[in-house]
Design a protein that fits this description.
The protein contains 9 helices and no strands. It is an all-alpha fold.
């Protein structure tokens, strides 16, 4: 049985067991579907129980043959990228007017300095939910350590 276990878990490294050994194992462990699959692959005959119980498993990774390594090493990564770029004009080019500055903090407008929780509460009291949510989002950007708190306030404001 240990030989059969190795055939199921590492079929690419193991020699196939004989049909008699598989039949003997199936007599004892008839419920074990990978063993039925191994028997079907070894003998070339379909297993009736496998087909009746699990016909969708023909697409299973247990049913596929191992791919040849040459299929994966035929092209280098540069060849694959070049072939992709040659199919269409898919090159990414920066805009002429784009600034080269890399930002790590969000950029806010000048009037964004006039945001507070009190102003958002006033907006909510006036029924201006969208404005209150916008202020809570700005506050979340300004105070990332309190983003969870502001996310809860946003959810409450949207549900009112």
């Amino acid at each position: 049985m240990e030989h059969l276990k190795h055939c199921i878990t590492r079929p690419e490294r193991a020699e196939r067991p004989s049909a008699e050994a598989l039949d003997a194992a199936l007599a004892r462990y008839g419920w074990f579907m990978p063993l039925r699959l191994l028997r079907a692959r070894t003998t070339g005959a379909d297993d009736a129980l496998w087909q009746a119980i699990a016909p969708w498993r023909t697409q299973s990774s247990l049913c596929t043959d191992t791919p040849a390594a040459e299929e994966f090493t035929a092209f280098s990564s540069d060849d694959i990228i070049e072939r992709f770029l040659c199919e269409e004009d898919l090159r990414i080019v920066a805009d002429d007017g784009a600034d080269d500055e890399v930002r790590t903090q969000p950029r806010l407008d000048d009037d964004d300095c006039l945001v507070s929780e009190d102003l958002a509460a006033i907006y909510l009291a006036q029924g201006l939910r969208d404005e209150a949510v916008a202020i809570y989002r700005k506050l979340s950007l300004l105070n990332p350590e309190k983003s969870v708190y502001f996310a809860e306030l946003i959810a409450q404001a949207e549900n009112k």
